[in-house]
Structures are given as C-alpha cells and as structure tokens.
Write a structure and sequence with these properties.
heterodimer, A: 177 residues, alpha+beta, 11 strands, 15% helix, B: 168 residues
C-alpha cells in the first residue's frame, strides 16, 4: 500500500489580496513611485500651479465666493501681465492673496468716471463687468513697474473695494480658470 | 540594493535639509507663539461673557510695549496706543456674536542679537454681528522688542500691496 502523508489543507492564496492591492506585487517599487509622485506634487503645487479658493465678492460674477481654481505661478516669469488678465497678488506671502483683474499697465493714465474705465483718455469697454457702479477717481499716471488692478464687482463703493496700483513684484501669477 | 540605499539616503538628506531650513529660530518661535496668544485673546465665541471679555481685553495691553503705536489703516484712520486698541477690541467684542482670527504668511526676521524683530503677517478677521458675517483681510508689519525675556509689539504698520486711487 502506497500513499502520501496527508498535508493540512490551507486556503489558496489570492494573487489580489488586500495587501497586494495596497502595496502592489513589489512593495519597494510602489514605495519609490509613491515618493516620486509626492515629490512631484509638492513641487508642482508649490512652484507652478497654486490652488486658489476664492473668498469674498469683489470678483463677482466672474468668480464667486467658494469657487476653486489654479494660478499659474510661471505665467509672468518671462512676460508681463496684460490688461484683462486675472492675476493673484501677494500680501505678506502666498497663502492669502488678492484676486484682481489687470486694467492698465506701466505708463498708462487711468481713471474712472461715473463707473466707466478710462485708460489714456479712451473709454475702455469691460464686458466682464455685470454689476456696474458709479466709481469716480482722480486720473493717475502709473509708474514704470506699476499695474492697475480692480475686481469685477463695481457695485460696491470704490472706498470699500481694494483696487489701485500694485508693483510688478507683487503679482505672483495668472488665474488659469 | 545599492541603488535603493542611495535613493533612501538621498530622500533622507532632502527631508533633513527641508527640516533644518524650515525650523524656526527659538526667538522666532517665541514671537509666533506670542502672536497666536494675542489672536486668541481677540477672538470671541458665542458663550463668552462680558466679564471674561473685559479681563481678556485688559490682557491685550500686555502684548504691547508701553510706547507702542499702531497704524491700522484702512481699519482705523489715525495711529493709536495700546489702551486705545484694547478699548476698540472690547467694543468690537461687545457688539459681535463671534470673532474669529486667522493668521497667514508669517515671516519673522530677528535682529540685534535677538533683541528686536520684524514680522510680516496677513490677518483674516471674521466678525458676526446680528447674524451678518463680514470678513476683512489685511497685512501688517510688526516691530517686536524683547524686554526682560519677553517679546512686545512696538509698532504696527499696514503692509499694502495695492495702493488705492484718490476718489474723484
């Protein structure tokens, strides 16, 4: 009589267990990939694409309170901001920044008369302004590094709205969407 | 195996470098904690009583040097001293149901053998009065001075990155 000693029965190992699902078949490679993804994400979202959460109503109706977007921090590394672009402006750093639209560039003369934007003695149409106001300001000549910025919501009095000239160095990037 | 070790050593060195770079100096850390404590005194929650508010606002003067001058434009037009500031904060706390303060982008520069320091900070204040909530965000430059091992605010100036036009 021949026979094999009976082996204790063990359930077959699934090739796709939880551990495999989490760590992959080669945990070392998974760890390396995770570290690389983390490093690239930190670099990307710190120096290139800054996540932006809009707070306040000064950019209504273009951007609403609570809206989320990204700012391209490299947009003005080799180019200057242009009129009409929406930019982020540093305060004491980059965690909290102003979100404004560029209305005039260095050397321009700018003012508002009864809500109409006038740049270099020409009225400028502003299709993005839906909430109109009656702003009146004194004509101002911008310096060689100054850009004039304002929010799209002109329904609030100019005294309650953070608007005016900002230095080129304060402009951190352009809002992508 | 060697490649793996090299990678781990490289990542470890980067992490150590980041840690050492970000590690605040002791004086800077003291100033950070001091500003956090001041923000806490200014805050108000719905349960706070008048007596505790009064005691809190009296503590506010202890964060400022005796001759401290605060220019809080555009919140307040003329420079004020520490007692006037405490009084303003008490008024605001008395009217408000809730005040929340958040501090962002704090940058401390320590000088004179850690006896003085300047700090840039962005303050976001959310105040609720009669159910209406308003948020104000402003940046300030603070001058700190160390007296008897404690840091005091000596001067506050607005840090305006946008210069307002003159109204016509």
């Amino acid at each position: 009589m021949t026979g094999h000693p009976s082996a204790p029965e063990t359930p077959p190992k699934s090739p796709f267990g939880l551990r495999t699902l989490f760590w992959g078949r080669r945990p070392g490679r998974t760890l390396r990939r995770a570290l690389i993804v983390a490093l690239v994400s930190v670099l990307l979202f710190s120096y290139v694409l800054q996540p932006v959460l809009v707070q306040g109503d000064s950019m209504l109706p273009t951007y609403r309170n609570g809206q989320f977007g990204f700012a391209n921090l490299l947009a003005y590394r080799w180019a200057d901001p242009a009129p009409g672009e929406v930019v982020v402006i540093e305060m004491s750093g980059r965690k909290m920044m102003y979100l404004k639209r560029v209305l005039a560039v260095p050397g321009d003369e700018i003012y508002f008369t009864n809500g109409t934007l006038v740049v270099n003695n020409r009225p400028v149409p502003e299709p993005y302004v839906v909430l109109e106001g009656t702003w009146n300001t004194v004509p101002e000549q911008l310096g060689p590094t100054e850009f004039f910025v304002a929010g799209d919501n002109r329904a609030m009095p100019v005294q309650h709205h953070i608007t005016g000239a900002t230095d080129r160095r304060q402009i951190a990037g352009r809002l992508l969407f | 195996l060697n490649n793996r070790l090299l990678l781990y050593a490289l990542l470890g060195a980067i992490a150590l470098g980041v840690f050492l770079y970000l590690r605040p100096m002791p004086a800077a850390r003291q100033i950070e904690k001091r500003l956090d404590a001041l923000a806490q005194v200014i805050e108000k929650n719905a349960e706070a009583g008048q007596l505790s508010l009064l005691a809190g606002t009296q503590r506010i003067t202890a964060f400022f040097a005796e001759n401290a001058r605060m220019n809080l434009e555009p919140l307040y037009r003329t420079p004020i001293n520490r007692r006037e500031l405490a009084s303003l904060i008490f008024q605001a706390q008395s009217q408000a149901e809730e005040i929340n303060i958040s501090l962002y982008d704090r940058q401390v520069t320590v000088a004179n053998g850690a006896q003085t320091a300047t700090q840039k900070v962005t303050v976001s204040g959310r105040i609720t009065i009669n159910g209406q909530t308003e948020t104000q965000v402003h940046s300030f430059l603070l001058d700190w001075i160390k007296v008897d091992r404690e840091w005091y605010i000596q001067r506050v100036e607005p840090l305006q990155s946008i210069r307002a036009p003159q109204a016509g």
